[in-house]
Amino acid sequence: MAVQNIAVKLCGVLQSKDEGEVTAREWRLVGQEQDGSQLLTWISTKNGHDVMNVGVYKNKTKTLDILNTFDEKLNIIQASVNSSHSLLVYVVKVVPSEDGADKEAIYCPFLISLLPDKVNMPEEVEEGSTKQIMLQFVYGKSNKYSPGIRNDRFLLFKHLECIKIYRSPLFLNECEDGTEKWGFDGIYPQPETIVNIFSWAQWDCVNQVLFYIHYRSPTQSFAEGEEVKSPSELTPTLSALQFHADLPHETVLNIPLSLPHVPGAHGAAAACGSYEDDPIPLRVHDCSLDLYIVCDQRGMLCVCHHYLYKPLDDSTSSLVLDDVDLKDSGVNFAYSVTLLHHGCVVHSVVPDLPWSLAKSLRPSYTLYNDNHLLVNIPMLFTHILDISPQHEPCCHIVIPMDPSDSGPSLAPLHGWGPHTMVDLNTLDVVTMGVSEKDLTSTFKSDTVIENKLAIMHYVIQHEGNMDLAEELISWLCLNQHDGLGGLQRVMQEYLIGTTYAVTRRSLPASAVGLMNWLPFTLHLKFADVKAGSATVCVSVSALWRGAAAAVVLAPRQRVAQFAEDAWTRLWIALCALAIPKNRLRPDHVRDRLAVTLHCYQPEALSRCSTPMSPTGPPIPARRPSLVAQDSLPFMELDVCTTSKQEHVIAAGFSSFFTYLGYRTLPFHAFAQYVHRNVFELQIDVLKAIIASKDDDKKRSVNNKLRLIQIVGEARGRRALAAWPSRAALVLRARDHAAALLSGVTAPTRDHAPHRPVKDTGIAALPSGERLSPLDTFLDLLTAKASLNELDFNLIIEATLASVQQETNA
């Protein structure tokens, strides 16, 4: 839906600046920069004479700056400006006249300084050529140079020959009156050639990445089932150069491509012979290769290739060029999308289209809502490809378009909001989207059941619109065009998709890896989808399994090893593809849930003891025959008392069960069960056992001391403090004294009352002027510790208890 027109909007901006009549016309979009600004040209009348203006518009600030005005009309096809708006590069295409000697168009690159207080004339960057030429400034503020120098760089693309990088520095000069002004001394005469021969190139202004296709000797193929090529045959390779502000550019990507019917590096021009000038996005190519790349900061990279071909009787195919016989018959309109982050390619074919229609169609590609790629085929349909990084690509939707005589030529527009594109023919701004109305009408049409299943998957898992999903199912129950089997498949998709979506939203971030094992859809089959008068055939094939190192530059090989960007995330995604993951089937999940429900009995559990799902990585196999699918996601492994408390029983039962065993079993049997974690000595049951009175006191004391040794230091101290026994008193005093004498901080003094011991006048206590051994020992303790740390009562009572025990014995 067109919400506004750039030409109309900019005429309003010019009107607000000048009270006179606005004569701007013949608007043309010729460039786009990283900051979201667009470069445009237009014709206006000045003093009765037509002039050409080059300006830059930034939608964020709603400002239009006129960069330069030419006294004559020029056929400027592409332009770029540096970040400070002080240098402008542009390309003029000189079209030969009918009477002229030249039969081919000539591309002439120029640079002009935009510095004030100086008459600036265009400077020719290179001599004009019949090969397509484009120019582009590289953005990025550099800190390597002094404040008085601006080191601007721009790229020069020359089709089938080279890509060069030019240096055009600006210097801050001091004037005679003491002021400072920027000066430009011209381009450095010797540029750096960064690419020698290429057949296609695209500049990503947002990520500052240069993609290009070149030809080299074949290497080992990563495509499954691809034929082995002879060493003499050159193969196309897609490479990417990442540019930085302060660091040298680096090659981050090398992908061997399989391009059907594309001639070699030295024959590409002869195969087509004409150029399509694409300033947005900036692409350099001829009509023999229509390629477009969509890159995202999350590491998603899509290589979109559009071509025409005619199947022949000998099961081979021929590229549709200028063959008259092929023009008279139908041709196949095809486009393939290589999803590098998934290691697969999605092939789509629209068979038997008229030549005139197929030749005029130009697909457009745009990322939509982070999980989908919208492929817009003018006058035919919109193809919604599910490229979500959360699961394998599937469930693609085809929505037919209303019939029309012509379609737009769409290109992405930065700085105007999400999913915004511009029609290069009319400069209409279009916001791409998928409305509920379109989804509903497609679902209720006579489309195939696979398309309805894809819509149900999209609505539930990616939109979270459960109301619309229930509405569509209700309609399907009343209108079963696909029979009972179709309704059954849609209901299955609804149940599986809803369960997957709810589970993903409820899991913590540490457990998201578990979703790689759970089923997200039940129907992965692709079928031919009819969209109006056209039919779309979709298929998927796998590529590059386990070849991340040969495709993307590893993080340790980057010029900035610890920086994280789209390429490091893509490398991680490709490494994950090397480990194949077979998702569980719904019946496997059902069987594991049945076992879980039978084992844990939810109706017998307390409120805070329901089973918990694993939150860490997959549980390691405990036997060699245990495969990964068997260990996930519903097998529990108890490793400690805490994990058992998450699901075992009602509160208080464990302590009661342990005390019952102590009272009914022989002590050696009870101790054995404690060692094997059958009985749990919690602090409440331990205190109850310690405080109990038994007939055989000596044996009972030894048994209780053994239990205290089992439970550990913390619970042992608490049990000793609650035990009114001479043995406990002596042990506590010895532990207290040992801690003081060893210089270790004494444990926190408990406030339990010490058992009083009657003074019987034994020799351990002082008498008259005689010092007892206890006095000597107390003097030693006070010398090692402060009075606040020393528990005199505990030491004295324990000494008395020990002496009385020896006396009674």
What does this structure look like?
Helix 14 (653-664) runs parallel beside helix 16, helix 16 (683-691) crosses helix 18 and helix 19 crosses helix 21. The radius of gyration is 40 Å and the shape is elongated. Helix content is 28%, strand content 27%. The chain has 809 residues and is an alpha+beta fold. The longest helix is centred in the middle third of the chain and has 24 residues, at 483-506. A hairpin with a 5-residue loop joins strand 12 (162-174) and strand 13.
Which structural traits does this protein have?
809 residues, alpha+beta, 7-stranded antiparallel β-sheet, 21 helices
Give the uncertain stretches in residue-range form: 264-271, 603-647, 755-771
Give the overall shape.
elongated
Largest sheet: 7 strands, antiparallel
Based on DSSP secondary structure assignment, what is the total number of beta strands? Answer: 33
- Output the structural class: alpha+beta
Strand-residue fraction? 25-35%
Q: Helix segment count?
A: 21
